[in-house]
Amino acid sequence: ANAATRPDCDVVVVGAGFAGIYALWTARQRGLGVRGFESASDVGGTWYWNAYPGARCDVDSYSYAYFFDNEVVREWSWSDICAQQPEIQNYLRFVAERCGVIGDITFETRVTGAEYLEEAGFWRVRTSGGEEVVCRYLVLAVGALSQPKAPGIEDVDSFAGEAYFTSTWPRDREVDLRGKRVGVIGTGSSGVQAIPEIARVASEVVVFQRTANFVTPTGGGPMDPEKVAGLRRDPQAVRQGMRETYGGTYPPSMGDRRFSDLDEAGRERELWKAWEGDYVQLAFLDAHTPEANEAISAFIRQRMLEQVNDPWTAERLVPWDHPYGGKRPCRSDVYLQTYNQPHVRLVHLPDTPIERIAPEGIVTTEQTFELDVIVYATGFDALSGPVRAMNITGIDGVRMNDVWADGPVNYLGTMVHGFPNLFLPSSAMSPSVLSNMATLAEQQVDFIFDTVAWLEENGRPALHPRAESQDFWADETLRYAKRVPGALTTDSWYNGANVPGKPRRYMVYRGGFKRYNETCYAELENGFPGYELIAPEAA
Ligand code: NA7
Prior knowledge:
By secondary structure, the chain is an alpha/beta fold.
């Protein structure tokens, strides 16, 4: 196409996970020509790549699903409240096929960069396949946890055995860990899920832990048929209802008493009830206050200690350094008990740090652990990482990576000043990763395409947020983060502390899903006062 006058298509969607699939479908529904690009060979996004043993969702599958299509809700059945990775990926393929979007996606193709063609008001997208596509709207549905973090350990490549990352677990062959000596680095959600599965087959498991995490029961098990029937009766009401909650889930179990109203015995009673009902984090209506949070943290630590036989190991598996929720808590029904098996051993890195990887295994300051396999469950360059990994230039050739040099800035989590018609679902400064990502994907994609429809109806070629709107949003994000015990003081991937050299900035909007949704739609209803509208003649 002649990039100056005619785009190749209306919309390019990058990524085919929860947000990407729904974006492709929505674009088609609205009569827009769309092309999708996906680096993997199939749909799924996070649920494609994280194919490690034990990978599953720890948000309940009643909520962690699409609700835009009644038939999809009625036809799909989950085998467990916490669905496993292969099942979630199959589900995403099922939806993508049902929606007829598979044919729109070019697989095994990474988008490497995009530049705004200011005169035409179009985006030119470049792919790893050498293709260039010019479009009017660019949706980067690249996920929040899709850019693996380098382990940052010396001589990683020197290992003579097999090495795997949980975030890119082989899918073209079975990884056989039977009878092998396996070392696992990392005890975040991925490590916590993988370690028990690895211990089932390996002859020896050595876990290298730098920071202990909170681990609470999953609440998994068979789906409650009555609850499923309730969801299927009126999916659109459920969808709307979820957008009116704090976390975007339906219906969240939680305590109905206030911590501040109860005496010691009453608090203990509520905590036990919540623990046994798998909602200990929401034991009280005021669970977010520092006092309630402290009691919840102490209660979980005690329950964790009780599950591990060896006192030295138990003491080190419990997170004493941060309050519950300061960083992403983990959920498992089997993780802690795994350490009661004689072939599983914990290495506490604060006492004996890893010095380097050697051909024979992992070398700490204390000894060399000889291993056949090393599993890196070392996490991600979260939220801003996937966007930063692309080369994006906006108005005046300004680079996204320069604009984000001190941490991500945007408005409402979805758009950046200087980058008209570029949309970022699932990214930083939205309720991403702390609310239900499936609900968020639908809400953000709806908002993006409602914005596009508004532009078309009003004869405006493009919009982007005002710089002041971004300042306001940064303040809002910080304001709510301050209310969360430990959010700003605990090192975590929420605030960039997990990646050496990454600017520290709290990257999740904690004002709740309801407020977020309302703030987005207030912009639309008022004609986008927080944005700069590009004049028709400029395009
Ligand atoms: P996380 O939660 O970032 O966990 C990564 C783990 O790896 C964590 O325990 C880190 O310790 C550890 N780590 C990272 N680098 C090193 C090095 N160099 N040495 C030792 N240990 C290291 O990632 P996950 O994949 O588990 O989970 C990501 C999210 O996916 C999860 O929260 C859910 O939302 C789904 P640290 O804590 O930094 O001391």
